[in-house]
Give the backbone structure.
Amino acid sequence: MTAHRLHIARDAGLLPHGLCVLGTPDAETALALDGLEPRFVTASAQAAGRLPAPAGPDHPESAPATLVLLPRSKALARGWIAAALRLSPEAVLVDGQKTDGIESIIRDLRAQAALSVGDAISKAHGKLVALSGPKDGLSAWALPPSPTEIAPGLVTVPGVFSADGIDPASALLAAHLPPLKGEGADLGAGWGYLATELMVQSTIQRLHLVEDDARALDCARLNLASRPAPERAIYHWADVTTWRAPRPLDFIVMNPPFHSGRAADPDLGRAFIDSAARLLGPSGRLYLVANRHLPYETRLTELFKNVTDMGGDARFKLISADAPKRSAPKGGARLARPARSR
């Protein structure tokens, strides 16, 4: 989708050699920029791993042009565009789908008297627009200089998952976790809420926080710094589906993602379950929370000998699974349900 508009922009001479790209590009977007030697600035470990050029979360000091791939968060989108203008005041390009709010962003840009905004390229249910202006022309859109405290001792930044407060599904899982011990992991750790709850357990020797979003992981480091024995936490900017633990793990907790952009995609959660089965030791146990409608039970019973419904509430289900199978069976284990109190 973005690639279609980039081909038009490239033919129009809007994409110079060595441009900077802010966002999370897919393979088609990267291919559309082939030969321009772009500098990719992305907080996504998964995106960085699939890009043909070096990529990471650090911004350059300047660039001949900067392309912003619009994120879902409006605050983050505005912050990236403001940062792009500081990097490349003569040539900023903003691209996004209509469902990501590109039209409202373009309207807001046109309302800025200090900016010169060109005609939009419209293609494939999205738009791309070029603009220029003074470096500080969007200072009011800049991201806050430090993370925001959303609860006592907990900070986040715009655009991370559950940036405005503690996620209710994660809170439900934390409230139902039993005492844990040994070495474990929080897959898709985000800004570290589950980890902060786990670190009060002195029987946990090591806790690996594996997170795709570098900005969220930076928040997790801050949030765990004041927890008991914070040196037990080990941080990994990595794709959960390919990350390898140093040794088989005793436990895993997770609240797996299930959206790709704005579309629901249960395969993301299934991929997390696959990783958990691969990473756990023979007697290791997985604890997960998920929306009630997500069909994870079949994959769980294929990969684990024992799967237990831990309950939950009207919106979320809690499931534990232990004894991962070392080869996927044709059938599956029975889904055990908790005894009902009388």
About this structure: The longest helix spans residues 74-87. The longest strand covers residues 280-291.
